[in-house]
Amino acid sequence: MMKTRVVLVTGAARGLGAAIARRFHDAGYCVAIGDIAFDAAQELARDLSPDGASAIPLALDVTQKADFESARDAMLAAWQHVDVLINNTGASKVVPVMDITAEQFDQVIQVNLRSVLFGCQVFGQYFADAGIGRIVNIASLAGQNGGSATGAHYAASKGGVITLTKVFARDLASRGVTVNAISPGPMDLPIVHESVPADKLNAVIQSIPVGRLGSADYIADAAIMLAAENAYFANGACWDINGGLFMR
Ligand SMILES: NC(=O)c1ccc[n+]([C@@H]2O[C@H](COP(=O)([O-])OP(=O)(O)OC[C@H]3O[C@@H](n4cnc5c(N)ncnc54)[C@H](O)[C@@H]3O)[C@@H](O)[C@H]2O)c1
User: Fold this and answer.
1) What spacing in Å lies between the alpha carbon of 190 and ligand 1's midpoint?
2) Lowest mean pLDDT: which of 28-32, 131-135, 148-152, 159-163?
3) How many angstroms separate the CA atoms of 193 and 200, rounded?
4) Which domains does the chain possess?
5) Which atom of ligand 1 has the smallest separation from the CA of 13?
6) Where does the record locate the signal sequence feature (predicted)?
């Protein structure tokens, strides 16, 4: 009998993470919904799996390595194995570059980089010991082109996500573990509508060659492809999904 595949999605209580969690669940995965917003994570888990058999909420602060260790242990207790980690959590604050304070800088860097560092350390080690595993880090177009609306600290941290992806990909490759990034451009998600005023959003959309915001479900589908068992040859990559805003 084939074992059901198991994934942890971080920052999965809303936005892109919730779309990723849903899509993996639809694809037959058991899904752990890790988020600092536990109530919302619980709501989504109940919606996906009312009896908790195939979706569980986990209180997870991605800046804390111990929280990743607890998440791993809770998933092993529930499902006996883990196959995939999606490091999706990200924080952004729109602040002009000259005005960013030390606190604002540290907060964004901590969430966006500690999450990937500790997630890859804890699950990378577990996957390496198991001889197989898949990690997908959600970076951003901002990490490639410097960003526009999202803030310099955000853009810098996402550049770091792409670099950490390469470091862990190289380190873990011989142990059966792949590590890849996806860099989305602006998507049709709550955070975009909340943080960009409507008139500015129109200008953003007009600047996208395909003329539309991105779809979170499609990013999720790309993550599912990178998470597949037969995806062993995709490693250390960054898949650009940005409507043609940035070509290389
Ligand atoms: N929205 C976009 O257009 C866009 C574009 C490119 C990249 N991204 C990236 O996609 C990812 C998801 O973005 P989103 O738009 O869904 O964001 P969002 O702000 O809507 O959701 C982020 C989630 O992360 C959780 N979170 C915040 N801090 C946390 C912490 N310390 N520990 C655990 N969870 C925490 C929040 O509670 C929330 O559920 C991020 O990495 C973001 O940078 C988004």
Assistant:
1) 10
2) 148-152
3) 10
4) 6-241 (3.40.50.720)
5) 39
6) none
